[in-house]
Task: inverse folding
């Protein structure tokens, strides 16, 4: 883990292409701006983790066969 | 003539899939390995399909069109995701949601928050910015017991 102190308006480079800018600090919240190539996906960590867990559950909880008939509630 | 591709599956054995059923996920599915998946039917009458990995034989997720179960469902993408998917035209994209299945149909749910958007053979799992898009929306399938009675 790398820990760096930055002020509002200052930036970080991750590699040559990803720019992380501290835009504003208000109370205990920080606004961050991120410039990254299109191929780099940026998520809020808690959302990324929840989707990852849900994908895993979908892949592992699935029964051998799915309901074959119409699924709409009657 | 359509090209076929071999898919090895721990569920279905080795099967041939039509090239048109193969979807490339340039960025993969969030937290899952591999970039090539195929859409397989779960039966002619079924609202579900399998999104099956072409690279890992025991990796498959049940998926469905969200509108099978949620007629009012809406997908709202960030500008970055719209650009990534490469299609502004809603008619040109197919939307699927992953399903969390269970032995009890009434416990089936769909992930409306992170749908899969497919455009010209390429798929992307994106974050839906729309307000009412839970990660575990119950499908409202009837219970096994209800069906039996």
Result:
């Amino acid at each position: 883990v790398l820990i760096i102190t930055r002020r509002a308006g200052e930036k970080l480079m991750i590699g040559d292409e990803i720019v992380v800018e501290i835009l504003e600090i208000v109370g205990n919240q920080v606004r961050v701006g991120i410039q990254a190539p299109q191929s780099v996906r940026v998520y809020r960590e808690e959302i990324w983790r929840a989707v990852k867990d849900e994908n895993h559950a979908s892949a592992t909880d699935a029964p051998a066969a799915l309901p074959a008939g119409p699924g709409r509630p009657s | 003539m359509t090209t076929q591709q071999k898919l090895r599956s721990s569920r279905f054995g080795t099967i041939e899939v039509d090239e048109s059923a193969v979807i490339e996920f340039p960025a993969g599915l969030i937290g899952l390995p591999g970039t090539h998946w195929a859409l397989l039917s779960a039966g002619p009458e079924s609202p579900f399909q399998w999104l099956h990995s072409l690279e890992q034989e025991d990796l498959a997720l049940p998926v469905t069109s969200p509108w099978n179960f949620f007629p009012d469902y809406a997908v709202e993408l960030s500008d970055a995701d719209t650009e990534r998917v490469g299609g502004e035209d809603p008619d040109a994209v197919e939307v699927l949601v992953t399903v969390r299945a269970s032995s009890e149909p009434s416990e089936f749910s769909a992930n409306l928050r992170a749908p899969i958007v497919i455009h010209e053979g390429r798929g992307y799992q994106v974050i839906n910015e729309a307000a009412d898009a839970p990660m575990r929306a119950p499908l409202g399938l009837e219970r096994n017991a209800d069906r039996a009675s």
Remarks:
- The CA atoms of residues 106 and 141 of chain B lie 5 Å apart.
- The longest strand of chain B covers residues 93-100.
- The two ends of chain B are 49 Å apart (CA to CA).
- The helical segments of chain B are 79-85, 144-148.
